[in-house]
TrEMBL record:
GO biological process: proton motive force-driven ATP synthesis
Family: Belongs to the ATPase g subunit family.
Name of the protein this chain belongs to: Uncharacterized protein
Organism: Asparagus officinalis
Pfam families: ATP-synt_G
GO CC terms, sorted: mitochondrial membrane; proton-transporting ATP synthase complex
Length: 122
């Protein structure tokens, strides 16, 4: 166990050194590649304006997303009506998708608790 801890510390040290050496260059390159998205001058007023634009743009997109949701739901209803014609592969894919969703839910719950497991601890 102590050797694994030493290996982990060594890897963390190497990663830290790599970030210290290359982090600044990566940051500069990232800003340079995305300079078309940077608003100059960066003032509080401009940030508030952009925040409002984002909020109201998202708000305006709700009707389109609402319509898409109902179309998707109608498609699921149609599949359910014709479930006797459903292939085994499609049913297996749907089951796998459901299991994956449940697994992500469980992982999300664990992450939300700070990666702790609840239950009896002797």
């Amino acid at each position: 166990m102590a050797s694994k801890l030493h290996q982990l510390q060594s890897k963390a040290s190497q990663a830290s050194q790599f970030v210290a050496k290359h982090g600044s260059a990566y940051y500069k390159q990232l800003l340079e590649n995305n300079k078309q998205h940077i608003v100059e001058p960066a003032t509080v007023e401009k940030c508030q304006e952009l925040s409002k634009q984002l909020f109201y743009t998202r708000l305006a997109s709700i009707p389109g997303r609402y319509e898409a949701f109902w179309k998707e739901l109608d498609g699921v209803k149609q599949i359910w009506k014709n479930r006797k014609e459903l292939k085994v592969e499609d049913a297996g894919l749907a089951a796998l998708f459901g299991i994956e969703l449940y697994a992500w839910f469980c992982v999300g719950e664990i992450a939300g608790r700070g990666f702790t497991f609840t239950g009896y601890y002797p």
